[in-house]
Amino acid sequence: MSKFLTLLKSCLNKYPVVSNSVIYGSLCVAAEFTQQTVTKKVLPETSQPYDAETIGRYSIYGTAIAGPILAVWYRFLDQKISGTTVKIVAKKMIVDQFTFTPTLLVIFFVSMSIMERKPDIFQECREKMVSTFKTSCMFWLPCQAVNFMLVPPVFRVTYIGTCSFAWVNILCWIKRQGNAQIEETQKLN
């Protein structure tokens, strides 16, 4: 196991954006795959195969969009606000949650809508942003406290990626809520 961690740390140090993007993208794909698997087990009448297009969209979002943004963001945040005292950790958590998270949620909803070729790429964002942000506060504030107090900077995106596996499962679930209603509304218009 220590050889793996040594290799991982080496890759993260040499190629931080690429390594973090691959890790984050893989975890996004795993989260969507998990959601599709759970949905099939809960709703056995949906015996259709896995939706590869949706899995592909999460791959693009995680690897090409969110992964690089997260890698650059945490490097920037660590440079601007360094340290692990309670006051500094609280400051990082507030800056992260209330400036970066809303931006990342908008990017998530809009980029997914673009990839889904929706006629109104902002509709889902308008409908789900507030409730998703509230949920993210309950989930991410404790995760970020651990991140900023205990996780070495080189492993921040990997840690966030691991937490994101759970979070993206939540996002996948949120994204699925109301999609049928949205599609019906669009057909009527």
From TrEMBL:
Membrane topology (UniProt): Multi-pass membrane protein
InterPro entries named among the record's database cross-references: Mpv17_PMP22 (IPR007248)
Subcellular compartments: Membrane
CC annotations in GO: membrane; mitochondrion
Main localization category: membrane
Transmembrane region(s): 58-77, 98-115, 154-174
Coiled coil: none
A Pfam family hit: Mpv17_PMP22
Keyword Cytoplasm listed: no
Alphabetic keyword roster: Membrane, Transmembrane, Transmembrane helix
Keyword Membrane: yes
PANTHER family: MPV17-LIKE PROTEIN, PEROXISOMAL MEMBRANE PROTEIN 2, PXMP2 MPV17
Family label: Belongs to the peroxisomal membrane protein PXMP2/4 family.
Protein name per its UniProtKB record: Mpv17-like protein
Organism lineage: Eukaryota, Metazoa, Ecdysozoa, Arthropoda, Hexapoda
